[in-house]
Write a structure and sequence with these properties.
By secondary structure, the chain is of the alpha/beta class. The chain has a single domain, classed as Rossmann fold, CATH 3.40.50. The chain is built from three helices and five strands, in the order βαβαβαββ. The protein has a five-stranded parallel β-sheet, sandwiched between helices. Helix 3 (85-96) links the parallel strand 3 and strand 4 (100-105). The model has no long low-confidence stretch (mean pLDDT 90).
């Protein structure tokens, strides 16, 4: 059974990520889809749990809304923060060679190389799918 990892920013694409999750669960079953903190047992080191699921996954869907490149408290895009969960999910997926499909939501654009930290630049060359929330 394929395993799908959904990566997204709650502040950016929570609603559409939930709809994508619901559709995938109908097709693949609940056990095959990893989405967010709901799938991390309480008291577990979330970094290790996410890394473990990524290593079992067949694909990562990177759901990108119009605020995905949002600037954090430091004044730089959150992806440049080494503790950013989205950055760490993408970085791990790239390192293990996991297929990544960017899913552009509601007119979001694919980030360019200059929008990304060095360890994520390869992501800029992934072919994206476009989805409208309506």
């Amino acid at each position: 059974m394929p395993k799908v990892f959904l990566s997204y920013r709650r502040s950016d694409a929570s609603a559409i990520a939930g709809r994508i999750f619901d559709r995938l669960v109908v097709y693949y079953g609940r056990e095959a889809i990893f989405m967010d903190v709901d799938d991390i047992p309480i008291g577990t080191d979330f970094r290790k749990h996410i890394d473990g699921f990524l290593h079992q996954s067949d694909i990562l869907l990177a759901i990108i809304g119009t605020e995905w490149l949002v600037v954090g408290d430091s004044g730089a895009p959150r992806l440049f923060d080494t503790n950013d969960p989205v950055r760490n999910e993408l970085k791990a997926a790239l390192q293990i060679g996991l297929p990544i499909i960017p899913v552009l939501v509601d007119g979001a654009r694919m980030p360019g190389e200059s929008d990304l930290p060095d360890d994520l630049r390869e992501f800029a060359f992934r072919n994206a799918a476009e989805v409208a929330s309506g």
